[in-house]
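Review form for a predicted model. The reviewer records the input and the model, then writes brief findings.
Reviewer: anonymous (R2)
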Amino acid sequence: MSRPKRTSRILEKAQLRSAGLKSIVPTIKFDEDYSLEKLIESIEQLRNKIDVYNTALSVVNSSRTEIEDMEKNLSQLSEKMLMVVAIKYGKDSREYEMAGGVRSSDRIRKIRSSRLKNVAQALDENAKTA
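Model under review:
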């Protein structure tokens, strides 16, 4: 899932406020630190910084998609290689195990009825000790 682009409510609010101040007096200046020019400059700086951030985010999202595709391809190749080893040497061979597979003889398959018997025996033993 890609990361969402960033917007700024503060930037939108400042733009509306600057438009309002501009309509009152286009060259309004209260002090050196509080002028319409300084407000517009700060708005532009924030807008540029958000644009840079969103551009970088697009690059990251693109790279993430490429990585996910490469992981998928590598997983498929690895699985196919294991299948080739299984075909050549068999699923119960040491070579299959060395390639990362689980040998057929090492797989433990429990039958449901035996599991139920084991559970019943465990309950009986617990009842005797309690």
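Findings: The chain has a mean pLDDT of 87.
Further findings: Residues 1-75 form one domain.
Recommendation: see findings above.
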